[in-house]
Amino acid sequence: MEKLIVIVFDEEATARAGLEALRDLDRHGEISIFEVQTIAKEANGAVRVIESPGDPRFPVMGVSALVGTFVGALGGPLGVLGGAAAGALIGSIVTLSRADVADEFVNDMSTALAPGKFAVIADVSEDWMDPLDARMKALGGLIFRRTRSQVKSLHHERDVAVYRADMERLKAERVEARAEFLGKIDAELDRAGKKLERAILRERSNILLREAQRDARIRALRVKADQSDGEVRRRLEARIEELRSNSEPSASSSQT
Question: How many CA atoms lie within 13 A of 195 on its CB side?
């Protein structure tokens, strides 16, 4: 299951140890890391990205922009970030709402990540919580999780339904309306139609984005699976199948 994981630490040394523990879990197939970043909360409330060397033995896949967006939400504008990581994060096109990361979750993290604290933030696929929990709790990490839904966005569905209902109401009202009110009703119908069209286009765009992300994750997992064997390969294959089973109707099949 795909999740956003945040582990808050009191010291930079334990945060770095937490990152290495995540990488070790990835190498052994306990989790699959799509993106990971270590950050510090400065005294002035700004977020500082802690640069970490990569792991050539089993590198992070780099097929997600969620962590960068979330870091920006925790620390304010992405412009507060420094170093090479900032350039990559500023270009993020994924919004937290598309990833089903609600404001409440951001607020919880902002509270836990007080000035002077450190955090490891990761976008992962995780089959069960125990391996990660055991490693992080041994380091004194405070763990937060948010499951990333792969189903289509319900709030966009709701927008489409509301605008369609408005149009049906206005059409029914027009049938009974006196001539002097037809112009006003037609103007409202036009506005409702444009809102409906925009809502449908937003949902199509979101579907295409989710399809592209899913396909990139599958390709990255496929590369790792081909480089692995035994239980690690089996776990990676299972995650590939889970991603495939979570596919949704193509954007081209959305009703207008």
Answer: 18
Which one-letter DSSP state was computed for residue 37?
E
pLDDT along the chain (256 residues), means of 10: 90 95 93 90 85 63 63 53 38 39 66 90 90 95 77 54 86 89 90 87 76 86 92 93 75 49
Q: What is the pTM of this model?
A: 0.64
Task: State whether the Cα torsion 27-232-63-108 is positive or negative.
Answer: negative
| DSSP-derived 3-state class of residue 146 | strand
Q: Residue 82 has what pLDDT? A: 41
Locate 53 and state its tokens.
């060397």
Distance CA 176, CA 60 (A): 63
Longest Cα–Cα distance in the chain? 76
What's the 3-state SS for 220-252? Answer: HHHHHHHCCCHHHHHHHHHHHHHHHHCCCCCHH
Q: What angle do CA 252, 253, 255 make, to 5 degrees?
A: 110
Distance (Å) of CA 200 to CA 96, 119, 204, 211: 19, 38, 6, 16
